[in-house]
Amino acid sequence: MAAKSLASRNAIVTGGSRGIGAGIALELAKRGANVLLTYNASSTGANALADKLHADFGVDAFTVQAGGSDRDAPKQIVDAAVKRWGHIDIIINNAGAGDDALLSELTHELWDKILDCNLRFPVFLVKEATPYFGTAPRIVNVSSVLARMGGAYTAAYSASKAALEGVTRVMAIELGQKYGATVNCVNPGPVATDMWLRDTDPAVLAEWDIKMKEIPAAPRIATPDDIAQIVAFLSEEGSRWSTGSTVNANGGLCFV
Q1: CA gap 248, 145 in Å, rounded
Q2: Identified catalytic residue from 157, 160, 239, 245
Q3: Domain named Ketoreductase: which ranges (predicted)?
Q4: Catalytic residue among 17, 144, 160, 245
Q5: Which residues in 175-187 are b (16+ Cβ under 10 Å) and which e?
Q6: Which of 10, 149, 199, 200 is least enclosed, having the fewest CB within 10 Å?
Q7: Domain around 113
Q8: Each residue's pLDDT tens digit, 133-192
């Protein structure tokens, strides 16, 4: 890998203030990309991370507060990126809402919250960005093993991620030759972020302590860097012949 394989490329990373998004932003900056981090009102640390990316790697990094449920957010993000850079080369649709409910307890409000953030937001972000694409743009959508495996309490979440994988294939067809773009998904399983460790029920954590021993790649839970390495590759020129794919990013927990 070239030390600065993404030098002078301009990347948007949604939900980039923490967890998987922060890991992706860090890896893109290491490879030379300028980074716009989006974060929602409840997140902290986005500005500190942007400062760190600039100080450590010499890239241009800045933040935009934009919630996934806000219909104006995609245009707000794109306008900020274009004003700063003039064009957009990479979009990482990482932001997501994960709370869900049993089917018997599902409400319209919760359904709309999950689908707005996990599906509408990334679709319309790409739509807003297309007039400002640079050369050979790269789009990576963050799906989940639950798009294919399902699970209790995840009706809205699983639906949103399965739909995102479907939209990825549509984008690959519509944007490919027109813009020279590639569009791919990655599908992580559980990742050892602060939210996973802090917010997951202890019984679920105990269950995963058993399950992770069977993960083919290694008997452990993923780290944000595990996911970031795959996303960064899909953001590079070397991934040019992969598009419309969902790429295994879960150590073999869910084969695709």
Answers
A1: 9
A2: 157
A3: 9-176
A4: 144
A5: beeebebbbbbbb
A6: 199
A7: 10-245
A8: 999 999 999 999 999 998 889 999 999 999 999 999 999 999 999 999 999 999 999 999
Q: Is the pTM of this model over 0.90?
A: yes
What's the token pair of residue 200? 């997951």
Return mean pLDDT, the chain.
95
Note if 113 is an active site residue: no
Catalytic residue (choose from 43, 158, 160, 161): 161
Give yes or no: 8 in active site: no
Residue in 17, 30, 39, 143 annotated catalytic: 143
Annotate 86-124 with DSSP letters as a single string.
SSEEEEEE---------GGG--HHHHHHHHIIIIIHHHH
Burial of 3: CB neighbours in 10 Å, binned 0-12, 13-18, 19+? exposed
In angstroms, the CA 138 to CA 211 distance is 33
- Segment 233-252, tens digit of pLDDT: 999 999 999 999 999 999 99
- Residue among 185, 180, 92, 103 at smallest CA distance from 134: 180
In a domain, 112, yes or no: yes
- The mean pLDDT of 23-40, rounded to a whole number, is 97
- Domains identified in the chain, total number: 1
Answer whether residue 106 is part of any domain: yes
Residue 4 in any domain: the answer is: no
Catalytic annotation on 143? Answer: yes
Kindly state the percentage of the chain with pLDDT values over 90.
86
Distance CA 18, CA 26 (A): 10
What the block records as the tokens of 17 is 């203030």
CATH classification at residue 236: 3.40.50.720
Residue 157 is a catalytic residue? yes
